[in-house]
UniProtKB/TrEMBL annotation:
GO molecular-function term, one example from the UniProt record: metallopeptidase activity
This protein's UniProt keywords: Hydrolase, Membrane, Metalloprotease, Protease, Transmembrane, Transmembrane helix
UniProt keyword annotation of Transmembrane present: yes
Keyword match Protease: yes
InterPro entries, per database record: Rce1/LyrA-like_dom
Domain CAAX prenyl protease 2/Lysostaphin resistance protein A-like: 108-188
Membrane-crossing residue ranges in chain numbering: 9-28, 34-52, 64-84, 136-164, 176-197
Protein name as it appears in the record: CPBP family intramembrane metalloprotease
The species this protein was found in: Nocardioides mangrovi
Amino acid sequence: MIRDRRRPLVVGGFLVLGTVLLGISLHVEPGQDWFYPAALVLAATWALGGVLGGPPPLGSRSPVLPLLVGLGLGAVFVVGALVVREIPALDDLVGSVTAYAERGSGPLIGLVAVLTGVCEELFFRGALYDVVGRPVVVTTVVYTVATLATGNAMLVFAAALLGLVTAVVRERSGGVLAPAIVHGTWSLVMLLALPALF
């Protein structure tokens, strides 16, 4: 583990690198083979940043409540999607994301989505959470701002809501395991539900 005074520098460095890689990976054309390596490198970057900038505590190990929160949040997004699909400009933004699921390999896309979500939590609700003041607010804002790199307003909105929920879960559970379960569950719900709606 690195010394405490270096942790903010390590976390900041990985934040910049991860944000750049996020922008690159989600500007790859859906269906392109190199989307998968780009996404996996991104996930590995968040995970490495989380470990080197921490390591973060696991916290509560009960999966029940985080699973329910993830399913509930997924349900909220599905209801929201029913509204969004009636607005052409927003429908196009969501469609550009669901295209990755429609044109890619189902199991592989599922693995990438869940793995990336878990690794994001390891970094944002792990290492970053532990080095900032007012971590619920700060990690939510930083996660949302980092998502601007995707150039997709709907992903930015999703990041704000998801980031807030996982930050609160992190605060109450005392570690990264619960928010990782929430994020992974939400990702699977989105992957299974949204392509059918758009």
